[in-house]
Amino acid sequence: MPQRQAGSEPCRTQVFQGGLAAALMRCLFFLSRLTPPLLLLLLCPLPVRAQAPTASAPSGTPGAQGCPEACACTAGGQANCSGRALPVVPAGLSWHVRRLLLDHNRVRALPPGAFVGAGALLRLDLRENGLRWVHARAFWGLSALQCLDLGANQLEALAPGTFAQLRALRNLSLADNRLARLEPATLGALPLLRALSLQNNELSELAPGVLADLPALGALGLRGNPWACGCALRPLCAWLRRHPRPAPETEALLCVSPGRLTLSPLAAFPDSAFSHCTQPLAARDLVVICSLGPVSFLASLAACLALGSVLAAWRARRRRRSAARRPPRRPPDPGSAPASPADLGRVAACART
Ligand SMILES: *[C@@H]1O[C@H](CO)[C@@H](O)[C@H](O)[C@H]1NC(C)=O
Ligand SMILES: *[C@@H]1O[C@H](CO)[C@@H](O)[C@H](O)[C@H]1NC(C)=O
């Protein structure tokens, strides 16, 4: 079966068998399992071909090669671990697993490298686990992952970098959680992400930059959040103007605070509505501004001192020079000798008489 067009419906893409990548993965798997590696390196293509016919029949057996004990696996690479009350991600994931259904379990936390070994995973479903905590490196190694569903959990926050490694991600759902904030660094730059579901969370704003590094994003689920109609909504409104109807309900999206703007449609805000908003300051700018006060004070003090001493020196020098240069213009004339105040007084008195 040819692989369906990769982007159109990433979550429903039927996982395909065969192909160069699959052969390579099996090759690596065999190498890791069996002992004489050099011999196997030579024979590697043989087991791959020999295994292909058996793989085409659905096994559906738990604990089959590369299939976690608790799950049912099919030849297509689907591991169905759905609804088995699992408290942790099952061990034994391998390169064979392309689609992991872990929904409706009890996985409350994802530790670092939770899916290590499942590097060929394309789709991961973690809905309805009561998930509260995801380590920033929980998804490390999933460089092929296209579709991640974390919907209907209890997530309140996500660490920076949580999704930054998932460079192939096309569809991410964080819907029906308790997220009150989403930082740009949580998503990072995801060049292929087309659909982001944020509906039914507790978001009142999207930090500037969250949507900036998602160039392929076309579908954005926003409903069911207490959007605040303040300056912080500006980047989102700008994005909405550039992407008409990113979700069917966009026209009906309302912001719910502050009072005077309560229940205004989000998509209807022109940029002029934000003309009173100053550009938000980054932390670095704040540090610069705060240190600018004392630094400029000290600098101006130093400048005044320097200028003052330069001026004083210059004047003293000028005085010294003019004193040195003052020529003995005329021979000293007793009549025109520098008059002391007493002399002047006497002159004035003569004039009066
Ligand atoms: C993303 O995945 C969800 C299911 O997890 C699906 O309902 C939705 O249609 C997908 N979005 C796109 C654009 O493929
Ligand atoms: C996964 O297994 C459960 C039963 O354990 C079944 O109800 C469900 O339909 C299966 N899902 C898929 C996609 O095969």
TrEMBL record:
Signal peptide region: 1-50
Mode of membrane association: Single-pass type I membrane protein
SUPFAM superfamilies named among the record's database cross-references: L domain-like
Domain LRRCT: 225-278
Localization terms from the record: Membrane
Short name of one Pfam family: LRR_8
Region of interest (Disordered), residue spans: 321-353
InterPro entries to which the protein is assigned, alphabetical: Cys-rich_flank_reg_C, Leu-rich_rpt, Leu-rich_rpt_typical-subtyp, LRR_dom_sf
Keywords, sorted A to Z: Leucine-rich repeat, Membrane, Repeat, Signal, Transmembrane, Transmembrane helix
Any GO CC annotation of this UniProt entry: plasma membrane
Biological processes, Gene Ontology terms: axonogenesis; positive regulation of synapse assembly; potassium ion transmembrane transport
Ranges that cross the membrane: 295-316
Family per similarity comment: Belongs to the SLITRK family.
Annotated protein name in UniProt: Leucine-rich repeat-containing protein 26
